[in-house]
Amino acid sequence: MSSLVLQCVFFILLVIILAKPLGHYMAKVFNNERVFLSEICMPIEKFIYKILKVNLKQEMNWKEYFFSVISFSIISLVFVIIIQLVQQILPLNPEKLHSINLDLAFNTAVSFVTNTNWQAYSGESTLSYLTQMLCLTVQNFVSAGVGICVLLVLIRGFIRTKNKNIGNFWVDLTKSILYILLPLSLVLAMFLTTQGVVQNFNPYQEVYTIEQTIDGSTKQIIPGGPAASQIAIKQLGTNGGGFFGTNSAYPLENPTIGSNLAQVVSIILIPAALCFTFGEMVKDKRQGKTLLASMLIIFIISLSSSMYFEYKATPELVNNNYINTQIDNNQSGGNMEGKEVRFGVTNSVIWGVTTTSASNGSVNSMHDSYTPLGGMILMLLMQLGEIIFGGVGSGLYGMLAFAILTVFIAGLMVGRTPEYLGKKIEPFEMKMASILIIATPVLVLLGTAIVCLLPNISILLNNNGAHGFSEILYALSSTANNNGSAFAGFSANNIFINLLTGIAMILARFIPIGLTLAIAGSLAQKKILPTSVGTLQTNNMMFVGLLVGVILMIGALSFLPALALGPIAEHLSMMF
What we know:
The protein is mainly α. Helix content is 63%, strand content 3%. The chain is built from 18 helices and six strands. The protein has helices spanning 2-30, 38-52, 62-85, 102-113, 123-126, 129-159, 169-195, 227-236, 257-281, 285-311, 315-319, 344-357, 372-383, 394-414, 427-452, 465-479, 495-524, 541-575; strands at residues 60-61, 165-167, 205-208, 219-222, 419-420, 423-424. The protein is globular, with a radius of gyration of 23 Å.
């Protein structure tokens, strides 16, 4: 038990220790201050602006900014689809992999453009090296950059006064990638290669095994490819799409405990650091720490709960004497089904909670094999709106929507007009924030209902009953919250599911972006009000408690009935 707690505490402290200086660095970058990478990056930055014909003095209002985001994403979407459709005739395809069907190409393109990275395919048997690099790796960078851009706009909305302009999308995107995502990815990729993560262009290797496989064969195919470069940004950008089919459970993608620690820390490193960035940019560091504290409280509760259920024995094992029942009725080693022996329960659960609290979706264990309530925690973290750290940028602007809702509720309690960071929260902001918060629950529940109504739904499921329903609910929770992980028992690669989840991913990405930009545009035109004795303090532990309460209340109200039909019902059937 002491070792388990020590591992969890070490992981959380490591994230915070690394996040604080990174947050300070990012604040300097976005405040256009000089940083240690300026000598290297500034000439490249100026060259990019020259090529794109970007006028640094020309800023955009929120509608122009949103149009730039949408147009850039549409171009990216079309490009990724086309490359997949003609993959077979392009170079860097040593295994002569065929081109992708249109419905799967659409789903994959949407998935990576929206920072979801949902994969209805196995990477090493479906996509060529060129497709992985030119489409998926590039989108890992730019989709993460877009999330940071939208957050920057919302921050400017709070700090600017009587100004309809909120920044330049192309400048923000360039800085996000050039000064932050690229350097961090380069460092992480180099470290991963030292741990044994594959990075080459060699054809797949056929090797002889010491023992025969189940089918009697003594040969095995070992895939290769430029994996380390994609894995680095898949984690840092909260993308999560694996280069190989089994994702970070695969030894060539995550070979050692060192690579495991580096990858799981990098999943929430930038989202945590952006809290410090936010505090510095609004000139009140306690504001950023308040948001980070709220995230950490829910994260720690979730980690503790999932860890408990995964270490607790299932009744079936205890009743049939498969384990030593004298050890507190716990399964020796915990629930190891679907988990790598080299990582064990502790490292698997830390990763599972981290990847679902961020909109990452990479896995080093199979979530479908978690205990019903252990898996429910992972599902619920996504259903809260991917705001407990969440995606790069998107997690924090989602959390700020909850903060706006919280100050509004608190204002109603005391009969005052709500204010946040000196800006008056009026009906327009409340409407936009409310729609933003309920948009993804509507998409999740509506999508789940549609899938459940399919006449041949049992064919798509590995399990019937409550667990089968959980597989569907998890898939829609993942896609409609831009996470990308899966329970894996749900056969998603068919035309209807590819189109349904593709549409869910698009709406879940761009509805919140549009609403966030609208809030930012409205706030930027307001003046900052002076603090008075009646102003609600939003940088103390009382506000942390209010914010956590609102988040959990909305999550419980939105998804408790669905969770009762899935993981809760499965747990009760297992117990009785």
